[in-house]
Amino acid sequence: MIKAAFFDVDGTLVSFNTHKISELSKKAILALKQQNIKVFIATGRALYQIDNLDNMEFDGYITFNGSACYIDKKEIYKITLNKNDLKSLCNYLENHILPCSIMTSNDIYTNTHKTIEMFYNMVNVKANVIDNFLEYLYDNIDDIFQLNIFANKETEKNIMNNILVNSSSSRWHPIFFDVNIKDIGKHIGIDKIIEYYGIKLEETIAFGDGENDTSMIKHAHIGVAMGNASKEVKEVADYITDDVDNDGVYKALKHFNLID
């Protein structure tokens, strides 16, 4: 029996085209709650960035790809990026142009670049552009949960192998990659949440579409990939549903008889 459902946001609950959650997805989540199935968000976003779900209430939140977890809005787990990695990144940025953002417990800060501005506008995210980016990074080195680095896969490989050696990377959009502490992922968030509630792993279902959802999809008892999911997610999923724009969440929950 499923007792907990975990949902990615962008590309899973929220369309990249409409930037909204569909009425059927909202109906499905409410139906789960009426059957005492707990519902959770599992996202690469920060908690303060989750503003595109029409004020729907969830039982908890996995944020920063598992680096910070909440029951309601109360923090139950957090882990920040490795300080040596961040110092190495500062050294690198002194000699290289690299569009990137740092995500702290209270906001997002970015160096000036049109690529970043274009992407954040697309997903309706606001960030603070600061001129003294390296200084701010140093001053807040103990409060950085995640990086967004806007670069191709070749640059990503070089940075992860030589600079951010105590971190791991994942993508949910082709123009940038997330950086979190090594071995963290949404699967860790699932474990923290279900431990809090006394729910078993075999009582979980998870939905996602991006590379940063892969660990969660593999870890949950039932892993569902959206029709618009990346190839990597579909390969590890137990079930592939329809696209986010065709109410894939609703259809999958119907398929597993979790809602009427």
Q: How would you sum up this structure in a few lines?
A:
The protein is α/β, with parallel strands linked by helices. It contains nine helices and 14 strands.
Q: How does this model look, in words?
A:
The chain has 260 residues and is an alpha/beta fold. The protein folds into two domains: 4-78 and 184-255, Rossmann fold, CATH 3.40.50; 83-181, Hypothetical Protein, Haloacid Dehalogenase-like Hydrolase, Chain: A, domain 2, CATH 3.30.1240.10. It has helices at residues 23-34, 83-93, 114-122, 133-139, 153-162, 186-197, 214-219, 231-236, 248-255, and strands at 4-7, 38-42, 60-63, 68-71, 74-78, 100-104, 108-110, 128-129, 144-149, 167-173, 176-181, 204-208, 222-225, 239-240. An eight-stranded mixed sheet has the order 5-4-3-2-1-12-13-14. Strand 3 and strand 4 form a beta hairpin. The longest helix is centred in the first third of the chain and has 12 residues, at 23-34. It is globular, with a radius of gyration of 18 Å.
